[in-house]
Amino acid sequence: xxNKIIVAGIGPGSVxxxxxxALKQIRAAKFLVGGRRALKDFSSAEQVTCAxxxxxxxxxxxxxxxxxxxNVCVMVSGDPGYYSMLDLLRKNxxxxxxxxxxxxxxxxxxxxxxxxxxxxxxxxxxxGRQPTRDVLTFAPEKILGLLTDAEFNSATIxxxxxxxxxxxxxxxxxxxxxxxxxxxKIFTTTLELAAIAEAVKHCVLIVRA
Length: 209
Ligand SMILES: C[S@@+](CC[C@H](N)C(=O)[O-])C[C@H]1O[C@@H](n2cnc3c(N)ncnc32)[C@H](O)[C@@H]1O
Fold this sequence. Notes:
Layout: E1 5-9, H1 20-28, E2 31-34, H2 36-42, E3 48-51, H3 56-66, E4 72-76, H4 86-92, E5 98-101, H5 106-113, E6 122-125, H6 133-136, E7 143-147, H7 154-165, E8 172-177, E9 185-190, H8 191-196, E10 203-208
Parallel strand pairs: 1-4, 1-5, 2-3, 2-4, 6-7
Antiparallel strand pairs: 7-10, 8-9, 8-10
């Protein structure tokens, strides 16, 4: 039987949000790949591990080498199907060798935290990319759910939405940072105030008129 790359979503961060299915695969893995924090939380001394750093080629080479021996489990944050290393793995390995264990995305938890359904929301990511104009342009009933990064953060995105995408200055922005961790912080402000306040970098933003 062919060995598999098991891409296991570990949820937004705290161990209480990981699914039993992901945990089972992570615990059973001989070879485990993941961010340093995930390896600290979930790996055991018997496992051969590879930390995902800026050097993604190193992680890909580890998978390439170990897959000939046994399954390799790759832990990714949130849900693997939503902006994760799954894209890169599919470009480098036949999709038939990849098995995905879904999990809770930071986006899902952000909407859950403010008790707001997300089925009608427009979701997009600024994490190392820029959403298209139609996604960001204001419409009266629109609800935006956005992933951010260091450059495109709560302040720069607020300014961008008002200056270039016609959002009213008094639209609300809910900033959801460190979701699921003990220091989780969620607060609601306006685009006008968020644009001049200290930037919150890696977070989920929910914007409504
Ligand atoms: C590369 S994306 C990964 C998304 C992930 N696959 C998911 O489904 O949540 C990284 C971005 O997700 C958001 N994010 C991930 N974990 C988070 C958390 N615990 N709290 C707030 N935002 C988070 C941030 O916008 C971060 O820059």
